[in-house]
Amino acid sequence: MDTKIYVTYNDIHRAVKRLAGEVTASSFDPDVIVAIGSGGFIPARILKTFINRPIFAVGISYYGIDNKPTGSPQKIQWIDEVQQKLSGKKILLIDEVDDTRVTLSYCLEELISHEPDEIAVLVIHNKQKQKGASFPREIKRYFAAFDVEDRWIKYPWDAQDISEHDVYTKQSVTQAEKEVQ
Ligand code: G4P
Ligand code: MG
Q1: What is the total count of domains within the chain?
Q2: Which of 70, 76, 105, 128 could form an S-S bond across to 133 if both were Cys, CB 3.0 to 4.6 Å?
Q3: pLDDT tens across 137-151, in order?
Q4: Which of 34, 78, 97 to mutate to test ligand 1, by most ligand atoms within 8 A of the CB atom?
């Protein structure tokens, strides 16, 4: 049995709705959403349905524009306007997965350097594992829809064949049910 975790668009939509409710209940009222591309883009758009704020996109990669590995995260897209508009603002940073935490932490440090009022982090999946970086101490709020084992997550937007992806999703759910029994 494939041990990957298959996730559907509907799973993501429901998870984002639930998290948006948690954000609102915590009385964190963001001024802007910052999405880390590319995995954070679709969750960010769904979030906007529930928390209607402007979305800024940032791109962080371990690969330079020439596609050579760099060994540490690098900005490949960082809109100048973002920097000017962050000072004194409440930011909700969104990505699809908190894996090693290295990219998230790098991004948070960069955002903090622009002196926002507060930053909260929102992810769909948090992998329970030894993290390669810690969040800066300024981060007080963290919202994760699912704590998962350290397994590879198959997101619907990566599927070459979404029908096949749906079949695997059903199989992995059936398998998970069997494991519980
Ligand atoms: P983190 O700070 O968010 O934990 O990110 P980390 O540097 O550890 O992640 C490196 C890349 O690996 C990220 O993609 C992240 O989305 C991707 N990744 C980690 N675990 C999984 C997983 O289980 N499934 C999938 N599909 N991706 C995973 P990236 O380089 O930012 O690219 P993109 O795919 O978001 O465009
Ligand atoms: Mg990503």
Answers
A1: 1
A2: 105
A3: 999 999 999 999 999
A4: 97
